[in-house]
Design a protein that fits this description.
elongated, 7 helices, 8 strands, alpha/beta, disordered C terminus, 14% strand
Length: 242
């Protein structure tokens, strides 16, 4: 194999005379650069000043426009109401995004994470008082019920995988009796059709519906029942949501 060619490098100065020569060359180049900058600034300073003022005004305008859009979006979300019929007509992704928007309306910083392999989390939200919340959304067009298997998955990943203080399963259908019992026992918030209507259409914040407390108080025995599931109102014979 041919020998690898080494990259070219400036030879190191040898002896005090070469060191002095290199120093003088650097000093001369620096002096020339300073004279050039001085000449440009002396002659063209009005244009440079105008460019700086223009750039600063543009940055301020961009920041003000972004802030105005953000405030407008928050005002729209504050009035957000979604009817049960509209929720029923959504597909799975639109339903997940609707739950995210409802959390933002309630003062959470929420993002949509639902995708293939999402490990039982469609929305993850943060709140300065209530900590991190993970939502698993189950949309149905047939009034089906969420089964206990979903509750097992959410419980198994909410804390260990997503670092959540609270886990919630939301559906426009209902929950089986086993899922309701298991969710109440393991403090998983169950948002069935009745609670979803109160949250999405009536405007009641989710943290009030679930009786959320701050993470440091959540372990107290008196508050362990803070997340009871509503008894499902659909027929017991409905199939589970897969």
């Amino acid at each position: 194999m041919p020998a690898r060619r080494r990259p070219w490098r400036l030879p190191a100065p040898r002896g005090p005379l070469e060191v002095l020569g290199a120093g003088l060359a650097v000093l001369a180049a620096t002096s020339a650069l300073m004279r050039l900058l001085h000449a440009v600034f002396t002659r063209w300073w009005p244009l440079l000043l105008l460019a700086l003022i223009t750039a600063g005004a543009w940055l301020l305008w961009r920041r003000g426009t972004a802030a105005a859009r953000h405030q407008h979006s928050r005002r729209l979300l504050a009035r957000l109401r979604i009817s049960a019929d509209d929720l029923d007509a959504m597909d799975d992704r639109a339903f997940e995004l609707a739950l995210r928007d409802l959390l933002v309306r309630d003062g959470w910083s929420a993002r949509h994470v639902g995708r293939h392999g999402d490990e039982a989390a469609d929305v993850i939200a943060e709140h300065p008082r209530f900590g991190r919340l993970v939502v698993q959304a189950k949309h149905t067009r047939t009034g089906a019920k969420v089964g206990s298997q979903v509750m097992y998955q959410v419980k198994g990943t909410a804390g260990p995988v997503h670092g959540a203080h609270t886990a919630v399963v939301g559906t426009n259908g209902g929950f089986t009796r086993d899922a309701t019992t298991w969710g109440r026992r393991h403090e998983i918030g169950c948002v069935d059709r009745a609670r979803l209507h109160a949250w999405a259409d009536s405007g009641e914040p989710l943290h009030q519906l679930l009786g959320l407390t701050t993470p440091r108080l959540r372990g107290l025995p008196a508050l362990r029942a803070a997340l009871p599931c509503l008894r499902p109102r659909t027929h017991e014979g409905a199939t589970d949501v897969q």
